[in-house]
């Protein structure tokens, strides 16, 4: 077995790389790339440039989630006595990038796992969007087929959170139009080429942004952020009566009032009085 000389403890090191500007690689990430026994990369041609920037001459091994099982098994075997750095083409590994299976199996094998935080296009786009950031859901890439894409959007339409999607230029306008149809014409932002020379963030409603890019698909890496749904209009008296009548077929006056109050956000005492009238 080869003698380890890197100075890093054996195990897996998840290194977040830049999403554009090479200067965004953290000093700690650069150090691991210089010291690791081997660097598992998504594409050796892409990662070679970053390793040169970091001053690293460490050997690279191609790895992605569709690699043959023996590639992953061999890397996990090496982690017992060597340091293995994991690097994707851009940003944080595992976030719409390879690495999940490697981390899963390394943990199952009892290997030490260290993450070195850094850039993520999804997080960077959130900070640029001007949309709420207290709750968000990362959706990755939507399915390419219309039916599957619509089903994915319907599943999260009621979620009170900002939604984050990755997208490509040729699909952008169509995807924005589908979002408007399934989510409602919400406020949104399209961020592209984050941290690069031609960085741009365009804001507007989903339909406005779809029209903007219909005849001019943008180039580069794209993130779409979509604001949460607006506040639902307050329930009307008719809505309350309908809900109470249905609840009274199953529940006592008190419990029916409590259930409808919780469901519609209305005053329980007022609903109790109205339920008593309806019951009578």
From TrEMBL:
It is an enzyme of class 2 (transferase). It is found in: Cytoplasm. Residues 235-279 form the RsmI HTH domain. Its main location: cytoplasm. Keywords: Cytoplasm, Methyltransferase, rRNA processing, S-adenosyl-L-methionine, Transferase. Residues 12-209 form the Tetrapyrrole methylase domain. One of its GO terms (molecular function) is methyltransferase activity. The keyword S-adenosyl-L-methionine applies. HAMAP family: 16SrRNA_methyltr_I (MF_01877). Belongs to the methyltransferase superfamily. RsmI family. This is Ribosomal RNA small subunit methyltransferase I. The lineage of its organism: Bacteria, Pseudomonadati, Pseudomonadota, Alphaproteobacteria, Sphingomonadales.
């Amino acid at each position: 077995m080869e003698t380890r000389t890197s100075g890093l403890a054996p195990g897996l090191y998840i290194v977040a790389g830049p999403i554009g500007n090479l200067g965004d690689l953290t000093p700690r990430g650069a150090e691991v790339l210089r010291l690791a026994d081997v660097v598992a990369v998504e594409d050796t041609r892409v990662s070679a440039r970053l390793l040169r920037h970091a001053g690293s001459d460490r050997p690279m091994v191609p790895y992605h989630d569709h690699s043959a099982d023996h590639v992953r098994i061999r890397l996990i075997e090496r982690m017992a006595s060597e340091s293995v750095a994991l690097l994707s083409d851009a940003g944080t590994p595992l976030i719409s990038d390879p690495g999940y299976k490697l981390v899963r199996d390394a943990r199952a094998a009892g290997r030490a796992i260290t993450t070195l935080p850094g850039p993520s296009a999804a997080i960077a786009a959130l900070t640029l969007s001007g949309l709420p950031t207290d709750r968000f859901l990362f959706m990755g890439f939507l399915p390419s087929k219309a039916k599957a894409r619509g089903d994915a959007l319907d599943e999260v339409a009621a979620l009170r959170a900002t939604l984050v999607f990755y997208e490509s230029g040729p699909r952008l306008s169509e995807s924005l139009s589908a979002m408007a149809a399934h989510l409602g014409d919400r406020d949104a932002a399209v961020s592209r080429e984050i941290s690069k020379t031609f960085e741009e963030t365009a804001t507007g409603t989903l339909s406005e942004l779809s029209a903007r890019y219909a005849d001019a698909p943008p180039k580069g890496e794209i993130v779409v952020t979509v604001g949460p749904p607006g506040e639902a209009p307050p329930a009307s008296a008719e809505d309350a009566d309908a809900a109470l009548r249905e609840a009274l077929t199953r529940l006592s006056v008190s419990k029916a009032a409590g259930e409808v109050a919780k469901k519609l956000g209305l005053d329980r005492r007022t609903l109790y009085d109205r339920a008593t009238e309806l019951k009578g």
